[in-house]
Specification:
The chain is mostly helical. The chain has three domains: 244 residues, no CATH class; 83 residues; 141 residues, no CATH class. The chain has 19 helices and no strands. Helix 6 runs antiparallel to helix 8, helix 11 packs antiparallel against helix 13 and helix 16 runs antiparallel to helix 17. The model has no long low-confidence stretch (mean pLDDT 88).
Length: 506
């Protein structure tokens, strides 16, 4: 989001909040807030999408985001006729907005919400028929077949891999160029940049997996009510968190969404929301963008030869990525607060933590918690199970606690690295943190056992010594993380190794 878009969304949220505060029929106004959130989020998917040299792709990618969200909702809840009738108003709003955005092609004063002119209305209508057919097919195919939802999970992951793998994305670009009658030789991986798909994918997978693993209701008790179409679409493409998170959970989001008793426009909410937005703008557009001038990148890494200046640009990048990311998070949380949605926190002073485990418990917390819930915990739980499988015996090396922790941490951090991009540098960055986490885990376990085996009471440390140890630990952890950003920031292993050689005077 740029400053104009942030200002527009903040103004909209303030107008809606004031309407809720002034309307005596509070429940009615708060329900209207839900419709405004839906409409604003759908429009934002198109407005925030970056342009593409592929004709009309900046219209079709946002449309795919909306269509995929509705398809997943239909697959999860398999609504019947009465439920579809209840969903018609939300469906009409979504279709109306998409149609209006397409029609701006013919209205020059209003053209265009998308970066380039939308396709002609006949093509849009044909695309809408295809999406409607997929929605109907999902409703019928997945009704009563909850386990089949895992195929949708695999489909979302496959789309994610294609978008993150440059070779696959370039091939997709060539295909799309060919369909548009454009020069396929000009295809580039940068042609296909799907706004917010990384975060949309996480929310969709979360909803699908929760549906698959949900416990059946007790005998005689009704199944818990699912999300309506309006709620689900608003959750997946909620505009403040669309571009940079945080990754919210559906049940937590809907709790705020359905709350019609708390006004978003009370004094505390306004002060908290506006101050958080201003803090985020200062972090992102003042501090981070200034640091970007001297921060580590491919050009600076190739040109800087002096050791001292190489350390300067590495530290500048460490600070820049924090202020950039946490700044966007502050803006998202502030905008959400003005709409009455309390998005989860994503950062908690990560560079002031005394070990790597605490760092990852305070850096991009919603991402860490997502992987912990949907990958690390299930994998380590399966390895700890005493049951023998086709792949693992009931006992042995692979069942040892140290191996289970190592395997869980390595695979989790590798996946987090690959989530950022499928390159060798992101693989090394993930491994860098995985083995750092494992080393800290083993050291903490060693210290715990040593203290437990000592009969005498441990000698208490003086406050000064304890403070010195804490400061040294914070400095060591920060430097480990900062050096890890070298792998993250640069495009190749060779260039990263060059930076490390220059950091030690080579």
């Amino acid at each position: 989001m740029n400053l104009t878009q942030i200002l527009a969304f903040a103004a909209l949220s303030l107008i809606v909040g004031l309407a809720c505060a002034w309307d005596r029929a509070r429940v009615r106004a708060m329900r209207a807030r839900g419709w405004v959130m839906l409409a604003a989020s759908v429009v934002a998917v198109y407005w925030l999408q970056s342009s593409s040299p592929i004709r009309s792709l900046d219209f079709w990618l946002p449309t795919a985001s909306i269509g995929l969200t509705v398809i997943v909702w239909a697959a999860i809840y398999a609504p019947r006729r009465a439920e579809w009738r209840a969903a018609l108003p939300a469906g009409a709003v979504i279709i109306g907005i998409v149609a209006f955005i397409a029609l701006t092609r013919y209205i020059d004063p209003l053209c265009c919400v998308t970066p380039t002119r939308p396709p002609d209305i006949v093509t849009v209508a044909f695309g809408g028929v295809i999406v409607a057919a997929l929605i109907a097919g999902a409703t019928l195919l997945f009704r009563g077949r909850t386990r089949w939802l895992n195929w949708l999970v695999l489909g979302v992951i496959a789309a994610f891999v294609i978008l993150k793998l440059d070779v696959a994305t370039q091939a997709l670009s060539a295909v799309l160029r060919g369909l548009n009658g454009q020069d396929m030789a000009q295809a580039s991986a940068l042609d296909v940049r799907w706004l917010g798909f990384s975060y949309i994918a996480f929310r969709l997978i979360h909803a699908l997996r929760d549906r698959v693993t949900a416990r059946p209701p007790a005998p005689g008790k009704p199944a818990p009510a699912g999300l309506t179409l309006r709620e689900f679409v608003s959750y997946v493409v909620f505009f403040p968190a669309l571009t940079a998170g945080p990754i919210d959970r559906a049940d937590r989001f809907v709790k705020d969404y359905r709350n019609t008793t708390v006004l978003p426009m009370d004094t505390a909410s306004v002060v908290a929301g506006v101050s958080r937005i201003l803090l985020g703008v200062f972090k992102k557009f003042v501090i981070a963008d200034t640091l970007a001038i001297v921060a580590l990148n491919a050009v600076n890494a190739a040109q800087v030869n002096a050791t001292i200046w190489m350390w300067v640009i590495v530290y500048a990048y460490a600070l820049r990525i924090f202020f950039d990311f946490s700044g966007y998070t502050d803006i998202a949380i502030g905008l959400g607060r003005l709409f009455g949605i309390k998005l989860p926190e994503n950062f908690d002073r990560p560079y002031l933590k005394s070990n790597l485990t605490l760092f990852w418990n305070s850096w991009h917390m919603s991402l860490s918690q997502w992987f912990r819930a949907y990958f690390f915990n299930p994998v380590t739980r399966a390895l700890r199970s005493p049951r023998e499988t086709h792949f693992l015996p009931a006992q042995g090396f692979f069942r040892q606690p140290a191996f289970i922790i190592l395997f869980g941490q390595v695979t989790t951090m590798l996946l987090i690295g690959l989530w950022h991009g499928i390159t060798w540098n992101f693989v090394v960055w993930g491994a860098w943190h995985a083995f750092g986490l494992f080393a800290h885990n083993r050291w903490a376990e060693f210290a715990r056992r040593r203290n437990a085996s000592t009969d005498a009471e441990p000698t208490p440390q003086s406050p000064v010594r304890r403070r010195v140890v804490t400061v040294l630990s914070v400095v060591a952890t920060f430097n480990f993380v900062a050096l890890g950003w070298v792998w993250f920031a640069l495009p190749s292993i060779d260039l990263s190794l060059t930076v490390f050689r220059r950091l030690v005077g080579g």
